[in-house]
Specification:
Low-confidence stretches: 1-18, 321-352
Mean pLDDT: 81
GO molecular function: carbohydrate binding
Shape: globular
Order of helices and strands: HEHEEEEEEEEEEEEEEEEEHH
Helix content: 10-25%
Protein name: H-type lectin domain-containing protein
Distance between the termini: 50 Å
Radius of gyration: 21 Å
Number of strands: 18
Pfam families: H_lectin
Largest sheet: 6 strands, antiparallel
Structural class: mainly beta
């Protein structure tokens, strides 16, 4: 009887949008992982994959996607997009569209789904007509835009992820996209896109995550040309050359740690177009239970000469009310295999 009442309470709270009620889940999709159809593609290449949530949501969630790992061949124009569709309480579809000529044999996507009244996802397509300064010319160029959102966020924070682009690099030594976010206001945030050399950006697809929930930890970090930049060290071509990042998190992250949402994705890069295949990867490792520290690593491998890389991350502790956690513990006891597989996905190690 207790379990039935608790489930009903959770369902009602979710339907009514109670401010203190949140549901968060996360996972990884590895649909594009060196299969023949991606190594020797026929363009246009379009496919989709169905993602089923480990736990059903109380109502239809918002879904954010970001790229954790990507590779494409050097000195080629790039044209790719990822987008979501058909979101329900049980799952959604991730759609992949690759138009070449660059081959993309690896593309790993992190997804985050949530029911949270203090968070919002926006996908913005910047078309050829919009990017007047970035799609032509040479040297360092930038163009400014504004990201609009609802007035319900009094003190919002914003991060951005690249989830699609069309880039021409025939005459350019670098493939460059950089995103700079300005100071957020209650209704909008300024955003600046930059590129350089003869890299021409024809289209961009950006995923914005906006939140005023301070139980959600988020930020952007990166590294550019400097003496300690491991990206420029090409002596070790077998292992990943990485930068490591650590951040202390609240103690709430160490309880029910398998339900932590540790999401991170690519925000910007500057790679030599002709020095080797373009390859970058980012991965959230774990939250150290002894020190309550979130560990992350990001970098490249092989012949890639990466002069700049920037990532953004979103961290959220187990977002379930206490009575829902009791129910989940009961489910875990009866379904150990599913939980273990999900935890291995979240803890997929990047650090060599």
């Amino acid at each position: 009887m207790f379990i039935i009442v608790a489930i009903l309470c959770v369902s009602v709270l979710g339907q009514l949008g109670y401010d203190g009620y949140t549901e968060w889940q996360s996972g990884i999709d590895r649909t594009i992982n060196r299969q023949n159809k991606f190594v020797e593609p026929v363009y246009p290449l379009q496919m989709f994959t169905r993602v089923q949530f480990p736990r059903q949501f109380s109502r239809r969630p918002q879904v954010l996607i970001m790229h954790e790992e990507i590779e494409w061949n050097k000195n080629r124009n790039i044209n790719y997009q990822t987008f979501i569709s058909d979101v329900t309480v049980k799952g959604f579809y991730i759609n992949y569209l690759i138009n070449g000529p660059a081959i993309i044999p690896i593309l790993r996507v992190r997804w985050v789904a949530f029911v949270d009244s203090e968070a919002e996802v926006q996908y913005v397509n910047y078309q050829f007509e919009d990017l007047i300064r970035l799609r032509q010319g040479f040297g360092t160029r930038f163009q400014d835009f504004m990201v609009q959102y609802y007035l319900k966020y009094p003190t919002p924070r914003v991060v951005a992820f690249i989830v699609g682009a069309e880039i021409e690099v025939y005459d350019s030594l670098t493939t460059t996209i950089q995103i700079q976010l300005g100071k957020p206001t209650g209704s909008a945030t300024p955003v600046r896109f930059l590129t350089r050399d003869r890299c021409h950006i024809n289209t961009l697809r950006i995923a914005y995550f906006i939140s005023s929930d301070y139980s959600t930890i988020m930020g952007t970090l990166g590294s550019s040309d400097n003496y300690f930049n491991q990206f420029l060290d090409n002596e070790n071509r077998m292992k990943l050359r990485v930068q490591r990042f650590e951040r202390e998190v609240p103690s709430s992250f160490i309880f029910e740690s398998h339900q932590n949402v540790l999401a991170q994705g690519i925000t910007g890069f500057d790679v030599h177009s002709r020095a080797g295949n373009f390859y970058i990867k980012v991965g959230g490792e774990y939250v150290d239970k002894k020190s309550s520290t979130y560990h992350c690593a990001y970098g490249t491998k092989g012949d890639t000469v990466l002069q700049y890389m920037e990532i953004s991350y979103i961290l959220h502790p187990p977002a379930l009310p206490p009575y829902q956690m009791l129910i989940e513990e009961s489910v875990i006891d009866n379904n150990d295999v599913t939980v273990i597989e999900h935890q291995e996905l979240l803890n997929d190690s990047l650090i060599p």
